[in-house]
Specification:
single chain, 446 residues, alpha/beta, 8-stranded mixed β-sheet, 6-stranded parallel β-sheet, 14 helices, 19 strands
Length: 446
């Protein structure tokens, strides 16, 4: 008897799950299915699991393919189960290619082709339909999105759009999604939502077109290059009952939320100064180093550094000024943006050809908070006081590239019929766009 084993959350059971189990069953005579617990899913970074484990086991059972159903609840269990049940073949979806090659020391490993464009459940009427999502753009951030999306329940990335055919076909082949390069409206038609990760100057037009077609939008920063553009996008979203969310992953990660909570608790007294730095030495031939109109440090990282400033001091700044070091093309290699508020001040430091300590410092009347580099991932931070021996340390999990956190928030809001997030508000997005607009005007004058 040939024994096959497979594992999964099997949340929001759909046709893709059904076909995977059917293919796994066809590989042998006896199929064992491991269903993960909610706690184990959370520990490995799987977010937004909706169905209880009882419901998920029942849905697997109803297919009739499983000869035995077990519960997976800890790291290392797969090897244990292979030995315990005398397994000959381990099977898993092709979106995990390479991840389980280590099991080849114990049994055959087969990666089963996943079902593209999954339909709604064939087992029961779903409480939460699967959200079909498309990606606009094929660059490095877009390439991180699909692997991260695997950890968010209830979403399926089905297609990609880029007007450049060669890039689109390469991306589509790599990630097994549909390629679109000719007609943006046709790309939008079958979708529920889009993730926009194209060039900065294209964000506004793509977002506006998608919202006008009734599609929810998760848009990379900067979402808009002027205050008027940002206001128009939010107005279009409201008119079409759509969710519009700007994608700065820091805003949605657990550690940053914890940091904001501690800062606002009064433990460091009144907050009077926020200093945030985000720099890296970029490839001299990269877009951010060569694009005179839309490259440079501030457009690349300014929204990140403005995030803690506006979160902690508000969006009603009295003034903002910029000082930049530029290259021969006029692109800012390093920029300091200084903000003045009614009861405080702030400094944003960004760069693409200068390296500085990427830390976040929040100064108060009783102490200060230090989040060391890279603060935008917020894995830990300290609260320090006048007494150098008095410190409070905080740590938080940050899994993967962090995109799963913003996507999890996006999916949760759609499911719950909500159209705004307290983690990153409309007011904050509009304020950031206004600062970007001022910076671009200043750069043009000089």
């Amino acid at each position: 008897m040939k024994k096959v084993i497979t594992y999964g959350s099997f949340d929001l059971f759909h046709e893709g799950h059904y076909k995977l189990l059917k293919r796994a069953k066809a590989l042998g005579d006896y199929l064992i299915v491991g269903v993960t617990t909610e706690q184990y899913d959370e520990s490995r970074g799987k977010l937004n699991v909706v169905d209880s484990i009882i419901d998920r086991i029942e849905n697997v059972k109803k297919t009739g393919f499983a000869d035995k159903i077990i519960v997976e609840d800890h790291v290392g269990q797969k090897v244990e189960d292979i030995h315990k049940y005398g397994v000959d073949t381990f099977a898993i979806g092709s979106d995990w290619i390479g991840e389980f090659d280590y099991l080849k020391d114990f049994c055959e490993v087969v990666y089963l082709e996943r079902t593209k464009e999954i339909s709604s459940t064939i087992i029961r009427k779903q409480k939460y339909p699967i959200i079909k999502m498309g990606i606009v753009g094929t660059g490095r951030i877009a390439a991180r999105f699909i692997p991260e999306a695997k950890f968010v329940s209830g979403i399926e990335t089905v297609s990609v759009y880029n007007p450049h055919r060669e890039s689109t076909e390469w991306f589509a082949k790599r990630f097994e999604v549909q390629a679109n390069w000719e007609n943006f409206e046709e790309f939008l038609n079958p979708l529920d939502a889009v993730y926009i990760a194209s060039l900065h100057q294209t964000h506004y037009e793509y977002a506006k077109a998608a919202l006008s077609q009734g599609k929810h939008v998760l848009c990379e920063k900067p979402m808009a290059l002027s205050k008027a553009q940002a206001q128009e996008l939010f107005a279009t979203a409201k008119a079409n009952d759509c969710l519009l969310l700007e994608a700065i992953k820091t805003a949605y990660c657990p550690g940053f939320s914890q940091l904001l909570g501690v800062a606002r608790s009064g433990i460091i007294g009144n907050i009077v100064d926020v200093e945030a730095c985000f720099t890296r030495i970029a490839d001299p031939n990269s877009r951010e180093s060569k694009d005179l109109n839309y490259g440079g440090g501030f457009l690349e990282f300014g929204n990140h550094t403005m995030l803690p400033i506006f979160k902690l001091l508000g969006t009603q700044y009295k003034s903002v000024s910029f000082d930049s070091i530029k290259n021969e093309y006029g692109i800012d290699l390093y920029t300091k943006a200084s903000f003045s508020f009614e009861r405080g001040m702030a400094l944003s430091k960004t760069g693409v050809a200068v390296k500085s300590e990427g830390q976040l410092i929040i100064a108060g009347t009783k102490g200060y908070i230090l989040a060391e580099s890279p603060w935008w991932l917020t894995k830990s931070f300290e609260v320090r006081f006048e007494d150098p021996y008095k410190k409070e340390q905080y740590t938080a999990r940050f899994l993967g590239d962090g995109l799963r956190y913003e996507l999890s928030e996006f999916v949760s809001l759609i499911r719950n019929g909500e159209r705004k997030s307290y983690k990153f508000t409309e007011e904050e997005s509009v304020a950031m766009a206004g600062v970007v607009e001022r910076f671009m005007e200043m750069r043009m004058r000089k």
